[in-house]
Amino acid sequence: IRMNYVKLSAKARQGFAYAWPYREVIEQVLRGYAKMINGPIADTVIGYDPSIPTYTTDLEKAKQLLTEAGVKEGDTFTYLFASGDATDAAMAQLFQANLAQIGITLELQQVDRAALIELAYGDSPPEERPHFMSGGWWPDYNDSWNQMYPNFHSESVGSKGSNSMFYQNPEFDKLMDQLKVAESEEEIRELTGKIVKILTWDDPACIFYAQIKKATVLQADIRGFIPNGIYINSFNFHQMWREAT
């Protein structure tokens, strides 16, 4: 869940991350077809660091951080997602219910997917964007830099990439520039760990709530299908065939 970097302070973003209903989303909404994740890097991607802790729902901690950030009971925040997406709607409603328990109002806004994409990839300023926006991403190839650069680098804001909530952290950018030219897997993992800690804990960009498990259903006579654990929903049809009966 992308968080507005301009409208929300780092402490507020940390507080909202503690208010997310992680277990309920995975068990009830996603029906177990997901697992907890500690940041934007899936455990199948080079650079993944398992030592980084994950958030858990803690409404007392959330309220403490939000109060320290200047958020008051009765304050209203906006959450935008695509209409017709029952999964996004269910998650948003659970988040809304958690925030209501600590006196915060979450206004749910639905727009058609075309409008959501236009906003996400357009150049409207962050002040005109919601506080939260649903989203998801997978890399073009097995590389942590490729996963994070389009979403969080300052060069990727607005129509220049997928940094739809205008995340801009100089230390993140500096480490990302080093990661781009890193040569060894050890160096990639070390830099990625530092970067993910910034994105998740020090200066959160998103609420990273799950790594989705994908299932592909094939007819019994289809052969040659090899699932791609990185670029999902891809099918190498030239390697697949239907077995003659």
TrEMBL record:
One of its GO terms (biological process) is peptide transport. This is ABC transporter substrate-binding protein. Residues 10-156 form the Solute-binding protein family domain. Signal peptide: none annotated. One of its GO terms (molecular function) is peptide transmembrane transporter activity. It comes from the Bacteria.
